[in-house]
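Methods — Computational structure assignment.
A single polypeptide chain was analysed. Its primary sequence is given first, followed by the predicted tertiary structure written as structure tokens.
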Amino acid sequence: MKNHELSSQVRQRAMRYAILCQCFGVIAFLAFQYNLMQLYFLALKLSQVRVFSLLGLVGLTTAVCIIPAAFLADRIGKKISGNIGSIFGISGYLILALAGFFAGTVYCQIMVAAGIMIFSLGWTMFLVVWLPLLRPIVPSDVRGRFFGKLRVSWQLVGLGFFAVAAWMLGKTASITVFQLLMLSIAIALFFRMVFFQGIPEVEKIREKSVFPFKILLDIIRYPGLISFAAYLFLLFLFTTNSLQVFTMIEKEIMNLPESTVVWLANVTTIGNVIGFFLAGMIIDRLGTKPVFLFCHFGYAAVLFVFLFRGYIPALTMPVLWSMHFIFGLIYAFSSIAVTTETLALLPTKNQTTAAALIHSVQYIGRALAAMLCAAALDFNFLKETWNLCGMKLSNYDSILMACAIMILLLVITLGLVPSILHKAESSPSPG
């Protein structure tokens, strides 16, 4: 099916299915990105170092598997690859749910690690086909608004899900409740697979005679793509773990109840929703340059303010609520900017592998960030307590301060983003 053969009706229907697909699917990733999975692992009596290491498995598995998954998708087709990935994703969450029956044992740790890796493999197989599948369907002049609407939609669904999760955990933060939530996510992933069938695969499968090494070489030589990937690696390295560190401070240092910690994550989601709604319109009008600049200064400001959460005790909780909301807002702007820039840079040929390469460096950054946090805590590189302006802070605060400083310094790396040097094309370039 050629791009010009797609009627407006087919496009609109496919875009609706894409939104429904993600509404049911992204909850599985949000559970890792925010704090539900983190709280589950703590409830399973896993150590703080083990929790960070396990959370890093998502990025590590994705980074290792994403390029091979892209080659496989180009061989067998995007829809087949996405369906296999959905099955793996469902299986991973079922294993995570079953791990609750073995809490506090070595079998629990093995099952959690296996569940994470199987889910991550499935997530990777789905991820590599997502943007290439949508690119010929979503017109270039509405991409910012479409992806803004897409993210607003699944964030609203996520907000509803995590609100229910907070209510359930407020009643009793038992392992059984966490298991029910894991099972619910597995069911949601099944419905994602159902709606995925309504998105047509427009582009042909690549010929088998093309060698993977030549494909990678062509992609690496493509103008602007590798420099943008390098920028994303640095950005994700110093921003990814912020919410996880927030959660550790709130749960382990401030001793807030699980329901409050989940509600704080919901406030982050509210910020996401508003940010996604605004970001699409702003990027379509102004481009990505001002958004990237805003995100750098915004991320750093949030992390610095979070350090001073207890400076005025009466304002501690308002500061937490505010910083979670603003962080969610900034993350939404950053996400839309990264997606828009990625779509503008993808070559016409080998799109799946090119998108996989960009995604891989993001997940390498995620994995390395988690591993560095785990190592810093495990080897006691950071003081457990220290003082700042009369406030008693923790080793987690040291991590936040280091990340805030690095995010500010990374402003100089914005020259690696093609649209900072010259405006990225609004439509895909031939290549």
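Note: The longest strand covers residues 385-388.
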